[in-house]
Amino acid sequence: MNDLTCLELCAGAGGQAIGLERVGFSHVGLVEIEPDACATLNLNRPSWTVIQEDIKKFDGSPYRGVDLLSAGLPCPPFSRAGKQLGHADERNLFPDALRILRECRPRVVMIENVRGILDPAFDHFRLDLKENLAKLGYKSAWKLHNASDYGVPQLRPRAILVGVTLDCAAQFSWPRKSFAPPHPVSEVLKDLLLSRGWRGYRQWAKLASTIAPTLVGGSKKHGGPDLGPTRARKAWAQLGVDGLGIANEPPGRDFAGMPKLTLEMTALLQGFPPDWKFYGGKTSAYRQIGNAFPPPVAAAVGRNIRRCLMSKALARAAS
């Protein structure tokens, strides 16, 4: 099934890569600058080719002809929580992604970012990007996707850009929302919260009967291992979760009060498979989890990209 190739930029802990792998993409390279994230990728998928490098220095020429170029570019330049400097932010890697796209000439490009990039403040930025992609022969569009629409138990809106070469563009369509609603936090975390015999689970579950608010991973310069700033922690408190810190283990039998989430719990809420491990200390691991692209969302978009490419291939074979 994995007969389509993918080069991924800013791969992080592998959220996007897991989703694309599930729907039949084989990664020829995953580029990531952070050592711990690279170690996470190698720990879980020793067969992947992980390249620890700044994409500003990465040469995409050896990957010319790859089917898909995917990327989870840094979000701070466009985040509503930041200064929204956009193209003027030193962390804006869109120009580098465009350069790599020119070098490797994929059939499809997919870039994930925060919903803030769709704000009116960045209309010119998106138009300029669209025109640059058009000059390179790609028809592109942005669409806002909420992770909860694809089974992820979390409110996590993400903006996704897909650009398709003109000969394939007519075959691409955005994925439809899942018919089944995501499970509530209480159900997703039940086994972990009961693993040490916590007697307060049933009462707590009444509060955590909805999906989670957005996980906030924090930036490299700011943010420790907790669930975000004050507003985010208040949202978690409504679900009976103490957002000030990450716990080392689930609550014990006689624990009283609001439990804190463990790294394993946050990973499940982000849509990672239960056996996915994260390398590094608590702050580093949580940052990898909190900044990830939920695998089910990546899989949903990736599945439609695959259908687009395969339908074109079938049409070419029939003609």
What is the topology?
Blueprint lengths: L3 E6 L5 H8 L2 E8 L2 H10 L5 E3 L15 E5 L21 H11 L3 E7 L8 H13 L2 E9 L10 E9 L19 H4 L1 H4 L7 H7 L22 H8 L25 H7 L12 H9 L4 H24 L1
Parallel strand pairs: 1-2, 1-4, 2-3, 4-5
Antiparallel strand pairs: 5-7, 6-7
Low-pLDDT stretches: none
The percentage helix is 25-40%
Mean pLDDT: 91
N-to-C order of helices and strands: EHEHEEHEHEEHHHHHHH
| Gyration radius over CA | 20 Å
How are the strands ordered across the major sheet? Answer: 3-2-1-4-5-7-6
The main pleated sheet reads as: 7 strands, mixed
Q: What spatial form do the alpha-carbon principal axes imply? A: elongated
End-to-end CA span:
23 Å
- Give the structural class: alpha/beta
Report strand %: 5-15%
Q: How many individual helices?
A: 11
The number of distinct β-strands equals: 7
